[in-house]
Amino acid sequence: MSHEGIRIVSADEALREAAEEKQLHADAVTPKKVRVMKTEGTGVEIDWKDGHHSAWNFVWLRNACPCATCHEEREKSGRKPGVAKPKAQVLLAMYEAPARPIEVTPVGKYALKFKWNDGHESGIYSWDYLRRVCQCAECAAKG
User: One Pfam family for this entry, by name (predicted)?
Assistant: First the structure.
């Protein structure tokens, strides 16, 4: 149940969510190197201090926007981060440009913020969030 960004959950659900949100080791959420391939239009790669490597394409990142509006919409529809909204069935589909950032800016020392070509710009992609949504084979097998 949601009301203006407040979600009321049962005690069991709260415990389950707390277990899922286990604290990650500091090196696991601290980037050693961040590459944003904006000019190439390909995506973001991060080498973490713990030796792990993560990579995401821009379309996936836009569909995984962590802002409250996008998160709530995904939650209502049961979609996981990175999964696109279902398209309405129409006779002649309109062309939609693939998601690309117009701007990428660091937010302090803890996140990236994207201004997307569709005008959306309210999501802040923290290092913690990006590590938790890593798409590599190792992380996918855990998930």
Answer: GBBH-like_N
